[in-house]
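Q: Outer membrane protein beta-barrel domain-containing protein, please. Structure only.
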Amino acid sequence: MKFVNWLGLGALAMSGVAVAGPYVGGAGTFSQYEYEDVDDATSFAAFAGYRFDQVPLMLEVAYTDAGKHDIRGLPSGVGLKFSGVRGSLGYFAKLDSKGSGVWLKGGYYDGDADLELTNTPFADRSASSSGFTYGLGGDWKLTPWFGLRFDLENYVDVRDFSDFPDSDAGESNVTVISLGVVLELPSGTSRLPSSYAPAPAPAYQPAYPPAAAPAPVVPAIQSQPPHPATAAPTSIPAASQPTSASSTIKPDLPGGMVAAGVRLTAQPTMLLRQPRSGAPIDGSIPAGAELQLLQRVPNAQGVWWYASYNGMSGWVSESALK
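A: Structure for Outer membrane protein beta-barrel domain-containing protein:
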């Protein structure tokens, strides 16, 4: 369909941009034709998209069912219907650390328009309808992964059969207001710019001082009594070499850290960049995963552990551990 070509152009323009994360969602809709004698209708919509990190853009596809709009003054059952898919590219302005924001977007839709003629001598009419769409909206994130969504869109020149029965021609704009929920999906792509160089992780400091290595013992040199000139010189024994301590096997941990212990996760949790709620997320951990604990930090939000898991490292709340 035509909207796929538009999405392809948008994806080509965004090649090389780091994806901040995909999202999906659903909403209830309230839709309205331009005519006063055409009733408003309610139905549903579903959507999915990506938001980009290095540029404030979003790419989205959606399916919208505008519902059935009864036409007043005509027999019961006569009404207009429209449903279709659309692709759009938008400007997204982020408002807080959870990901709330507002947007403006524009795109292209492709769908089907129907004229239902129940209780009349005519057969139902159906035709394809496509054109431009534009709108605005916003997300209010309750958590970094879940939020509420408001969207206002205008579908331009939707087929409305206003010339029937002479022809199937006739077009009008359809306004669709939707209110629903949005769910952010985990992404393995880094949210940091390519030039970002993380600071070295702090070394683990044990609670007790390490034992000092024993000093090597050098035997005292014994004084020799005088000998005749012909006597062979007395050799002085060489100092014994200190015995090297056996090497300690250390796990391959970031920044040369030493594990303080191992614990399991009690529930699915996230590796955070700082020891606080709402910090940027660097990875996800399933329930029952084994973590190597590296450093313990208490603060106003509880106790946090700097931990290593599956090649990743970050901060985990102690409340998420067994």
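A: Brief note, in case it's useful. Confidence is low (pLDDT under 50) at residues 1-19, 190-195, 239-252.
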